[in-house]
């Protein structure tokens, strides 16, 4: 099984990276991990030009940045994990640009020809936040549900590590969440 993990944090060694690393280590024996550090790539915002809709079988985006190559890696994976710190009750701006560009992965929305280039792909959300889950990390989960539905993906789960102040304090909470993610995802594969 190949898993694409998208680290949407501006800090490559912060809380989200550490929690995602726990998960990657747990499943690494059974899966091929393709980590995409979003800050290592150039991803522009969506232009809303609609040019991508002319190509039914490929992303078709006209922009010359790294988004299409990231989408190709996602399409070649069996599972996609979106990992982001919580910023203003939502995704970090680094991963949000990529999420906005998912527009090019959906074709014929609202018509009988509606399809997604990620259709039926299992996806999961990993969030770290400096506070509780309730009235804090609830909105990002709703946004993820909408994104997953729009892409016609199968949501494996939404995992939140609350009260993350610094990477030195995430060990126990982060590992508990990583173990649950690994169990949920590896439960889909015969080992």
Topology of this protein?
Blueprint: E1 2-7, H1 15-27, E2 32-37, H2 67-76, E3 79-85, H3 93-100, E4 106-107, E5 115-116, E6 122-128, H4 138-150, E7 154-161, H5 171-186
Parallel strand pairs: 1-2, 1-3, 3-6, 6-7
Antiparallel strand pairs: 4-5
Helix pairs in contact: 1-5
How would you describe what is shown here?
This protein is of the alpha/beta class. The chain is built from 5 helices and 7 strands, in the order E-H-E-H-E-H-E-E-E-H-E-H. The chain has a 5-stranded parallel β-sheet, with helices on both faces. It has a two-stranded antiparallel sheet with strand order 4-5.
Mean pLDDT: 94
Beta fraction of the residues? 15-25%
Q: Can you write the helix and strand succession as a string? A: EHEHEHEEEHEH
- CA-to-CA gap between the ends? 10 Å
What global shape is seen?
Answer: globular
CATH third-tier fold name: Rossmann fold
The rounded Rg comes to 16 Å
The structural class is: alpha/beta
Domains (count): 1
Helix content: 25-40%
CATH architecture: 3-Layer(aba) Sandwich
Strand order of the largest sheet: 2-1-3-6-7
Task: List unreliable stretches of 5+ residues.
Answer: none
At a glance:
The protein has 191 residues and is an alpha/beta fold. Helix content is 31%, strand content 20%.
Key traits:
191 residues; alpha/beta; two-stranded antiparallel sheet; single chain; globular; Rossmann fold
